[in-house]
Amino acid sequence: MLWIYKPDVIRGDMDSIRTEVLEFYAKQGTKIFDESEDQDTTDLHKCVAYILQSIPNQESNLCILVAGALGGRFDHEIGNINVLCRFSTTRIILLSDDCLIHLLPRTHHHEILIHSSVEGPHCGLIPIGMPSGSTTTTGLQWDLSDTEMKFGGLISTSNIVKEEKVTVQSDSDLLWTISLKSQN
């Protein structure tokens, strides 16, 4: 049996979709929003904005999972990470075949529950937007204690999850990344 996923909406600047694919989905009833006039935002930005506009009274437990967001062109990956920062009050998870990334805003104390059957053990914390003058963690092999992190200095890469719960407190926004286990 052939399974075809039919998206409700295709939104973007349409520079990378083949005409026959666009026509196929349009015939299936998918709404097409061509925003080729807007070259100042990425396709992901356009899609997240659409989701947020479409949900009345946005609930705080909204989570947007973006599959295929990593592993391609580096400038696209950075653009996707920028979307995390631009929509910092919305939980957005960027997913690839081997890891996931999401933003930990400095305004919160974070408790990350680790699902060890699918996540880990490798993880990292990367300051984004500005250096971190103070980051403290628990649950990692190499916990941070009031540690300064910045590009050109220390960033927490190749760390190891040791507990089912990791806590993170920082004075700057951080990217949390954790490896995903192969499900073959």
Automatic annotation (TrEMBL):
<keyword id="KW-0808">Transferase</keyword>
<keyword id="KW-0418">Kinase</keyword>
<dbReference type="InterPro" id="IPR036759">
    <property type="entry name" value="TPK_catalytic_sf"/>
</dbReference>
<dbReference type="InterPro" id="IPR036371">
    <property type="entry name" value="TPK_B1-bd_sf"/>
</dbReference>
<dbReference type="InterPro" id="IPR007373">
    <property type="entry name" value="Thiamin_PyroPKinase_B1-bd"/>
</dbReference>
<feature type="domain" description="Thiamin pyrophosphokinase thiamin-binding">
    <location>
        <begin position="108"/>
        <end position="174"/>
    </location>
</feature>
<keyword id="KW-0067">ATP-binding</keyword>
<protein>
    <recommendedName>
        <fullName>thiamine diphosphokinase</fullName>
        <ecNumber>2.7.6.2</ecNumber>
    </recommendedName>
</protein>
<dbReference type="InterPro" id="IPR006282">
    <property type="entry name" value="Thi_PPkinase"/>
</dbReference>
<dbReference type="Pfam" id="PF04265">
    <property type="entry name" value="TPK_B1_binding"/>
</dbReference>
<dbReference type="InterPro" id="IPR007371">
    <property type="entry name" value="TPK_catalytic"/>
</dbReference>
<dbReference type="Pfam" id="PF04263">
    <property type="entry name" value="TPK_catalytic"/>
</dbReference>
<keyword id="KW-0547">Nucleotide-binding</keyword>
<comment type="function">
    <text>Catalyzes the phosphorylation of thiamine to thiamine pyrophosphate (TPP). TPP is an active cofactor for enzymes involved in glycolysis and energy production. Plant leaves require high levels of TPP for photosynthesis and carbohydrate metabolism.</text>
</comment>
